[in-house]
Amino acid sequence: MGFFKLSRRDAMTMLIFIALVLLAPIWLRPFGAAYPDLLQKFAIFGLFAIGFNILFGLTGYLSFGHAAFLGIGSYTAVWSFKLMSMNVIPAVFFGTLVAGLFAVLIGYVSLRRTGIYFSILTLAFAQMCYNLAYSVLTPITNGETGLRVLQDDPMVIDGLFGVVQEGSPIGNFFGINMQGYPAFYFCAVMLIIGFFISLRIFRSPYGLKLAAIKSNQNRMKYTGFNTRPYLLWAFVISGMYAGMAGSLMAVTDPLAGAERMQWTASGEVVLMTILGGVGTLIGPMLGSVLIKYFENIFSAFNKGALHDVFAFMPDWLENLVVAVVHPFVGEGWHLTLGALFMVIVIFLPGGLMEGFRRLSRLRGRKPAK
What we know:
Blueprint: H1 8-22, H2 24-27, H3 36-59, H4 67-83, H5 88-110, H6 115-136, H7 138-141, E1 147-148, H8 156-160, E2 172-173, E3 176-177, H9 180-203, H10 205-222, H11 228-252, E4 255-256, H12 263-276, H13 283-296, H14 303-309, H15 315-325, H16 333-347, H17 351-364
Antiparallel strand pairs: 1-4, 2-3
Helix pairs in contact: 1-9, 3-9, 3-11, 3-12, 3-13, 4-5, 4-6, 4-11, 5-6, 5-11, 9-10, 9-11, 12-13
């Protein structure tokens, strides 16, 4: 029971987080981000970033290969659908478990080095996994086409219980199809569970040991403290988060492809964590929401949409504003994200959370007499 015991402050943090996540379809509506597909991405990549932060934020070990576990989780979940059942519970369970097993192997080798050498090792492992999935293990991964659930797949457990699906197989939670808002709320529950576990790790003696390793690992070794088991467990837990996020991708769309293992996906979660705030509880989630919002909302603003937005202006001013704004939206949304990333790294090294802390201090500062 001690694991579930929270301080008053942490309990309040959990309640606020649960309310924000479950009410996201309401408060995100004015921002045009309340549709289910985007909400699912917020939850899935938020979970991915929260898990990555356990490794990077607490220990300072920067992995460039976490997308490997994302892809492994997706492939495992799809094979769970194909072989056993379209029920999402076994898919998420086995996707998380298998990703954790691979994390043990990769972490055991990679953690023999620190700093940039550790980062390069994880990147190398991720690219090896990508190439294996793309070209070598095509009987298992279906190569560049991707692995998809088919109507004639065995689905042994569904067959035993007489469960029959018409049309394209869709993941379900005991009869509730994982599409639209039901799929979002399933992902949201997984996100809440993941955030709770992360909160408990941050507040636990184990989390304090990881923070001490980040502060000065050599000093801890000089005292006779063996840091490797703690680092390996942090790596494995972080990999399991990524595996769960990958399995949720397969839950919302029963397809797995090698592109989820690309180095760009690993770089994306690094950006999410840095933008939100490394080593903070909420920061990685904020970073993931920001990046996915840019990717899905800003990228949709083409010239026609911009003309509609600024139609209230005189024609000459409307054309001028559209010409200035257009390079930063639509296909150029990466330019806006890059500029925002530069501003945050230069002026707010602690990410968005540091900005919020500065604002709260300014509001709380009493005026001089």
